[in-house]
Design goal:
The complex is a heterodimer. Chain A is α+β, with helices and mostly antiparallel strands. Chain A has helices at about 5-20, 25-35, 80-95, 100, 110, 125-140, and strands at about 50-55, 60-65, 70-75. Classes of the chains: A alpha+beta, B alpha/beta.
Chain lengths: ~140, ~425
């Protein structure tokens, strides 16, 4: 399957997954679960260089390309809800080709009603993280 | 212990100090919902909601009385000027200043501090001089002094804060020995709720020859202030935290100081005669510091906000808010891992806390889903956060319109959020 199809399919899956939840509480509980399940970043990658400073919560992000030319992300946050959203981003964008990551339209986030977390005024570092993921896409595309 | 949350018998819509039903009916915003739940607004320290009298005052002015002030001979301009100057007089009375010449309209407390730093500071501060602040300051009372110190190669020194969240007396006395030129100090901490004994600190600082600026942004909405009694040289506050509009604030300065200070911003309103060749002479106080068209409707509505506070009773408002704060501390102390910041002797209705292992952002996000508005983060006081070695806190801050029931909702919400996050 090509990267673009995978990207669309993964977003559809996330939307379906969240459609089960009837109220905000279940939705956030799921997000918290996802946050707890995300493998914490190892100390090697939890550096100031990889830190994306939000005003409210902090996000760490590192990226690497495998021999097949797919981009892989490792990310973490000090806030668990942010971390749950970080986990969703990594799940949706991880393992795709850099060009697809660079140009990805992440429509799933508003479909599951969590787009307020991506607002620049929210200052949780998440919007900057998405931008950084795309920058990695652009950078690795050039390699 | 946790079972008591939300079930204590004193929860009610009743306050011995205030008629809360009447007060709440004057705040239109309080009837709205957030995420489908009734709004519980506990972010007064960031900005107060507005009573209908303030909203109407602005509307009334714009509908029927607007014109530019101090300009025209026409009737409307005169009406606007009269209302604008009457508001200044209300501010003067409210803070006990001697003359309206000592009351400068600014866009807020931040603007007022910058005015003093840029006008008084640039004239009076020389290389090597000491500017003294405290670790409790809001960024608005740090950064303008930092900028001044950098420009003038002056030294910015900082008085420490104790574990309880008070000014460290020993450190204060020690720092005074360096003969600071000015002490800039917060009256009431926006994070900790600490009420600083500014009268005493002012006297101490002036004894070593320092000028004293007090940031009253968090005191004006909650307690009576008399600048002459305090004896300070400058006192600043914002309108919007005191039930008034945004974009309006006040600088009080002692007349003899203001008279000597050079104007900061140039433009209309602040001039006497403008002559390209001979130069410009400046208007008398207070207009010398009010370049350009001021926020006329804001000033008028600010006067109405002060009337509203005085009519409601500032003492009763303060007592009520302290009772809400005490109730909140009582209920929240039942939550596992609860840690409070700010346990000084004298406090306003501000409760700052953290729960072990939980990030403030997560707690704030879940409370928001329940319709409860609190502030999370560093509260524009990063040096204070660094002092306590924390990234930020969750802060509930109360106003005249908050109820014990809302405090119950907060405690129940925090309990629920903390269960979800563990």
């Amino acid at each position: 399957m090509d990267s673009q199809t995978t990207l669309q399919q993964r977003q559809t899956e996330v939307v379906e997954e969240f459609a089960y939840f009837e109220d905000w509480m279940e939705k956030y509980e799921h997000l918290i679960e996802l946050g707890k399940e995300l493998v914490p970043l190892n100390d090697r990658d939890r550096t100031d260089d990889n830190l994306i400073r939000g005003c409210q919560s902090r996000v760490w992000l590192s990226a690497e390309m495998d021999t097949e030319g797919a981009l892989h992300f490792h990310a973490d946050s000090d806030a668990i809800i942010t971390k749950g959203l970080v986990a969703l981003m990594v799940r949706v964008l991880g393992g795709l080709s850099p060009s697809i990551v660079a140009g990805a339209d992440l429509w799933f986030i508003s479909r599951i009603g969590l787009d307020t977390h991506l607002s620049p005024t929210r200052a949780n570092g998440l919007l900057s993280m998405v931008q950084q993921m795309k920058h990695y896409g652009i950078a690795f595309q050039a390699k | 212990m946790t079972g008591t949350v939300g079930t204590t018998p004193i929860c009610s819509n009743f306050s011995p100090m205030l008629n809360l039903a009447h007060i709440r009916s004057q705040f239109p915003i309080l009837t709205r919902e957030i995420h489908g739940r009734p709004l519980v607004y506990l972010d007064h320290a960031a900005s107060a909601q507005k009573p209908i009298a303030v909203i109407e005052a602005q509307r009334e002015y714009l509908m029927h009385h607007h014109s530019n002030v101090h300009r025209g001979v026409h009737e409307l301009s005169q009406l606007a000027t009269d209302a604008f100057e009457a508001a200044r007089e209300k501010v003067r009375t409210h803070i006990g200043a001697s003359s309206t010449e000592e009351i400068i309209w600014t866009s807020g407390a931040t603007d007022a501090i910058n005015l003093v730093a840029q006008s008084w500071g640039r004239a009076e501060i020389s290389p090597g001089d000491v500017i003294l602040i405290t670790r409790m300051e809001h960024h608005a009372n740090i950064v303008p002094w930092q900028m001044l110190a950098e420009e003038k190669q002056a030294k910015l020194e900082v008085v420490d804060v104790t574990d309880e969240g008070s000014i460290d007396e020993d450190d204060f006395q020690k720092k005074l020995k360096n003969n600071p030129k000015i002490l800039a100090i917060i009256h009431v901490s926006n994070v900790l709720g600490t009420v600083n004994d500014v009268k005493r600190w002012t006297k101490n600082a002036q004894q070593v020859g320092a000028r004293v600026l007090i940031d009253g942004s968090q005191s004006i909405p909650h307690l009576a202030v008399d600048v002459v009694d305090i004896g300070c040289d400058f006192f600043v506050f914002s309108g919007h935290k005191a039930y008034g509009p945004t974009g309006i604030g006040v600088l009080y300065g002692r007349k003899e100081l203001l008279e000597k200070m050079p104007p900061w911003r140039g433009g209309g309103e602040m001039i006497d005669v403008v002559d390209i060749e001979k130069g410009t002479s400046y208007a008398a106080l207070p207009h010398k510091f009010e370049a350009g068209t001021p926020h006329i409707s804001g000033a008028i509505a600010m006067g109405v906000a002060l009337d509203w506070m005085n009519g409601t009773g500032l003492q009763s408002i303060g007592d009520h808010e302290r009772a809400l704060g005490a109730h909140a501390r009582h209920l929240l102390s039942g939550v596992e891992g609860m840690r409070f910041f700010g346990e000084a002797q004298e406090l306003t209705g501000v409760v700052s806390f953290l729960i072990d292992g939980l990030h403030p952002y997560d707690v704030g996000t879940l409370l928001d889903q329940m319709g409860i508005a609190v502030r999370t983060g560093h509260h524009c006081a990063q040096p204070l956060m660094a002092r306590f070695q924390i990234p930020g806190t969750i802060r509930a801050s109360f106003g005249a319109y908050n109820t014990m029931q809302e405090v119950d909702a907060l405690a129940a919400g925090v309990e629920r959020a903390s269960r979800m996050l563990r």
